[in-house]
Amino acid sequence: MVKLTSVSISSNEHGKMSFRATLQECNEVTGVNVTMYSEDVVDSEFLFSGWLTLRDGNWGIEHDLPTTIERLVEVSLHVNGKPVETDPEVSLIFLQPSNGGTWRNGTPAEEKRSQLAEERERVFSVPIGSYDEGLIHFYVVALLENIQLSRVMRVPGIELIPLAESNLGQDAAELLNAVIAQMGFTHGIDPSAWVHMLNVRRPAAILRASEVRANDANSAIEAVYSAATKLIDLITFLRDARPKIIGGIIGQQIDQSLQYHNFWIAGSSYSGNRLSGFLAGESPHALVNHWSNLDKDSRTELWLSLFSDALHDERWDYKVFRLFNLLEGAAKELLSSKTVVADATGTALLMDDGKPYTVKQARGAVFMLLRRVAQNAGVSESSFVSNAVMQTPLWDEVKVWTSVRNAVAHRGSWRRSTGTPLTKSDREIEDYFRSVGHDGSLESGINATIQALREAVKTFIRIALLGKADTLH
């Protein structure tokens, strides 16, 4: 049997690495491959892989592998395609010097690895939530779908653990089989084939937040969900697919054991119509008519898709951002560049510098589009404001939407960075939210504002579904 009996690595001052390995029973060897990984506070990372050549009884390779700092390197050696058996006295953990010289293994490298492990725990074992005294410490585990991972991924406070098999959605096959049997089908879905396809098409992972500090379970879940949403956006960017949180459990660590507290389902509750009948959007005739009208204007499919994406987004400020951008894009597409931005009396609306608004400005474009939409649909402009009882002008309502859209575009969200005071404009917008809310709260006012914006977009899309979008010019 081939056995690795010694390894030596050195570098010159320019970073040229020289690797040498001695193997027992070399006559059985047909190929030797070495792979190196660097290890730091975050994790291990691939450095280099190459095939060794036999020279003077040793297997070796040279490669440019410069570094500006001393780093820990783990070596993996494969002989004939399989991991090589290693002599117990041979360590494959090395310290690569920054200025060239012999790479050290053994005790110095093991001590460095232990030091990195301790530092790693300090970096990643960061609580989620508040740092106030007297808070409850929660433990949250969640299930994510549409996420393909081959290794554990971590950010401070959160760990993502891949699942080889999840069986996520297995109950759907049981439901379908029960339904199609009632329809008269003599055969149903093969459960094993269904599960196999699910594992391929809907890979899953576990999200773990082992230290969440909050006053209560709901606050803990909200804190994890907020952090997880940012992580999901980043994973989407890096992996080109958006994971989705399904739900999870929350517990507490008490007396060295984890005790289950409760479960939770991710996402907002169903917010659509719960009523039935044609007045609640359940008209077969309307559905068929809209379906046939989709082919009249291909832009309508885009607007519908953008509307659907906006409603799916659970962050209120992002929802406003998406809905407003839909209207602005449509306005720039449909309105003449010579359109005068004016109120119902024909008076031109002016910017702070006294110059008249044009449809080149987002506020002016959306306002004029909605004036045309209201006229075309035969509804009052007050249909698109947060509180019609207050008789808020549509122009003022659009200002609020524009302010939120601009905040998201320029600083990433409506919320300001911790410690940054609200601007005068921000305070005015939040005062407006409270004034239109049914109970005077910020939350109810935001909901009312989103409802008004949503109704504006839906009224526009209804016109587009009739093939009349171009009449809004």
Descriptive account of the structure:
The protein has 473 residues and is of the alpha+beta class. It has 3 domains: 3-121, Immunoglobulins (Immunoglobulin-like, Sandwich); 125-166 and 203-265, no CATH class; 278-472, no CATH class. It has 11 helices and 19 strands. The protein has helices at residues 107-124, 170-183, 191-201, 217-239, 284-293, 298-312, 316-334, 362-377, 394-411, 424-436, 442-465, and strands at 3-11, 16-24, 32-39, 44-51, 53-55, 58-64, 71-79, 82-83, 85-86, 93-96, 101-102, 104-105, 128-129, 136-145, 153-155, 158-162, 204-214, 244-254, 257-265. The strands form 3 sheets. Strands 13, 14, 15, 16, 17, 18 and 19 form a 7-stranded mixed β-sheet that branches. Strands 1, 2, 5, 6, 9 and 11 form a 6-stranded mixed β-sheet that branches. Strands 3, 4, 7, 8, 10 and 12 form a 6-stranded antiparallel β-sheet that branches. Helix 7 (316-334) crosses helix 9, helix 7 packs parallel to helix 11 (442-465) and helix 8 packs across helix 9. The termini are far apart. Residues 275-280 have low confidence and may be disordered.
